[in-house]
Fold this sequence. Notes:
The complex is a heterodimer. Chain A is an alpha/beta fold.
Amino acid sequence: MFVNFHSESPLTINSMTLNITEIRKDFPILQRETRAGIRLTYLDSTATSQKPSSVIQAMDDYYRQSNANIHRGVHTLAEEATAMYESAREKIAKFINAESARQVIYTRNTTESINLVAYSWARANLKQGDLVILTEMEHHSNLVPWHMLQTERGIELEFIPVTEDGLLDLETYKALLDRRPKLVSFTHMSNVLGTINPAAEMIRLAHDAGAITLVDGAQSVPHLKVDVQSLDADFYAFSAHKMCGPTGIGALYGKAALLESMPPFLGGGDMIKEVKLRSFRPNTLPHKFEAGTPAIAEAVGFGAAVDYLNGIGMDNIAAHEHEITEYALERLEEIPGVKVFGPSADKKGGVAAFTLVGVHPHDVAQILDRDGIAVRAGHHCAQPLHEKFGIPATSRASFYLYNTKEEVDLLVNGIYKVKEMFG
Amino acid sequence: MDDLYREVIIEHYKNPAYRGKLDPHDISFADNNPLCGDHIQIDLRVGTDGTVTDARFDGHGCAISQASADLLIESIIGKPLEEVKKLNKDSVLELLGIELGPVRLKCALLSLKVLKAGVYGLGEAGDDLVE
Ligand SMILES: Cc1ncc(COP(=O)(O)O)c(C=O)c1O
């Protein structure tokens, strides 16, 4: 059978840094204007990244050429669609260096991946009084599923504190581990502070204490080279839409023995091996956790996104983002009244959440929008973290492979305009 | 769009006339905008004839939410509660004198939701109150 997979997109990349002019041409949306004569300056990739033509094209091709429901079908299209769906899974598995593709479960997003662990693994393994350790910098998606389990099961929650400069307090973490938690679940990279947490060390410490680990990789997989085996993560969750892929699909990586021991999450078609009127036998991995018709075109797009990122190189992307972030922090901190949250550039990814004295972040974002500059304002689904810093909200600029220093300059000029209006 | 930050809005944001609390009061209610964490509390004093004799708002939020709260409070003092109950989205937009997209509309309407939830004695400020 022949399936025409999309080749990696051609890019000219300078040896050390990226050729951003060329990269920007891959993203059609970056050419648009948000109003007459004003070109888009997209600084909101932490919320969702833009999509390169190769990803859009791969999904379009799938619908035009190969659309069919997967598995069970024997006709040509069903075979093609199944092969495309599964080969994307293989690419994703390789991308994070999973032992095998069957350990990569497709979900809707990071949130669903975390909920899958909470519903399946945790409900089978945690009982009243069991301790789960989280951190104060978690996204709501790694808080609320555990709040729900706390209500339902009476599990206990403890939080690794965040220090003034936006790092996790590892001494307190070590002390908490003496209480023998069952699970440690934390974000690899904060979507507000940008902090890149020492995941490998935290996992090693958790394992020494006998705990299972779940890593929220929503922000790390798009921006850093992630190797789940060298991290020794038990579960690792991420979303396609933040890494140049489509919305509606994400993944959960898990260690094979754990995934095999877990009960199914949702019941229905595809996740079964055999169904009787009064009973069923679950399917093998990864299908056990994929009930019903999945997001097939989105999986194909997810695979194309991985191809695209590989074509550029995750190390190159991380190096470019570091350069931009360093520059952005320097320029933002020059502005009187601006306070940037989180650690210094060497300890964080491409995120700059800030406040401007006397102006609400919504107003900052709205006024920047007039100049085509897209930043996010609010608590970024991390309300407890904002409370910790004593602020209701921040404005957040975030950077990806297609952003430039010129865009940072536009942002800085825009903030000066805001100051003038509210003067 | 371009007069979103009309001078009156920035002026009411920076120097609100009715920011504060009333103690004692006859009605007091507070709620948040879950999207952005904006918070507004409204205190009212109501005369025996059912008119609002005094009112204040407190809280934090963007210029739109705070300015619309200040304008709203100004507009209800001296009005019968029965009339306050009839206020809706359009009344607030008229006070602000601007057009708003769906996201910022939530900011603008928070104070009215809080006000009406308080007047009706409800536990929560729902969207249906300002339709
Ligand atoms: C750190 C972090 N975790 C989880 C999520 C949730 O991702 P999704 O909305 O794709 O489930 C996000 C997205 O904002 C995030 O930044």
